[in-house]
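agent> step 3/5: call structure_predict on target 'Tryptophan--tRNA ligase' (Allosphingosinicella flava).
agent> reason: downstream docking stage needs a structural representation; sequence fetched in step 2, passing through unchanged.
tool.input:
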Amino acid sequence: MRIISGIQPTGEPHLGNYLGAIKRWTELQHEQECLIFLADLHAITVYNEPGALARTIREAAATLIACGIDPNKTVLFDQARVPAHAEMAWLLNCTARIGWLNRMTQFKEKSGKNRENASVGLYSYPVLQAADILLYQATHVPVGEDQKQHLELTRDIATKFNTDFGVEVFTVPEPLIGKAGARIMSLRDGTAKMSKSDPSDMSRINLTDDSDTIAQKVKKAKTDPEPLPDTMDGLKGRPEAANLVTIFAVLANRTPDEVLGEFAGQGFGAFKPRLADLVVETLRPIRARFETLRAGPAEIDRILMDGAVKARALSAPTLAAAYKAVGLPR
Ligand code: TYM
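tool.output (status=ok):
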């Protein structure tokens, strides 16, 4: 088994990123070979202030390490320092079909009404994502629910490339999507996912929010006046309530039904302070480690450069095999 996954280094990582992906990465690294990277080439598919990128890349790396990613166990790097990602993306652009990309819902959401003006990079974003994964012969990709379609596309690209050129260059990877936590919703709207790009900071809990901010955000989270039922089935049609129970459950390493077993019959006046405590207690050590790490940017750069050296070595054979398969001498 070989695991790979990534996160965009723009905007602060939030509780959705943590519960849907990062927490799982920290667990998997003890059992499996893991590669985790900062998707900085994906970040530039929309305009990002060039002067700020180096800092946000370091901060995202510091956040991951603060969450428990151990650079001695996980190969931690950023895409731009491993040119094979961009090279492989080109080879795969020639395998991916326009019709496949036209079906990508994330492109439709991100490009919005002004599609003609979206960058070509944003359109072919999922092909770069396929390159990230296929370069390393990854077998499993732990992600949140929103990445499912990109993973299916990755499998289609791998299969078509292998078939077209008649060689098994790529492993066809499996997504790893958790049962609970794979889709954490906004605190202001239970039908929208928690997202870095939501204009309201009250809609999400950032991993580096201080305790007072977290308590305020949980207190102000949208809910309803009904008491809690004793199983998740009873929360149908109450997306905000279901979301808060899910967050509680994943943080406490319990099932949502176990959590409801404890709170059945009680209202949010009782539930929210307990949830706030749980989030504060989980994020407090993460924020403390983040502050320490942020004070040593040279150390973070060293970690990312070490990771990139390892990633270059791990990706080189597959890149060479892909060039050979398409018939290009190098
Ligand atoms: P990104 O940066 O949007 O998110 C990083 C991870 O967090 C998950 N996630 C969530 N999980 C649960 N609830 C939410 N509200 C929530 N929001 C985000 C995402 O599913 C993701 O797992 N395209 C990717 C980055 C990427 C990548 C890859 C991932 C680039 N190449 C190769 C895997 C493999 C992205 O933008 O993730």
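agent> step 4/5: record observation. The longest strand covers residues 2-7.
agent> proceeding.
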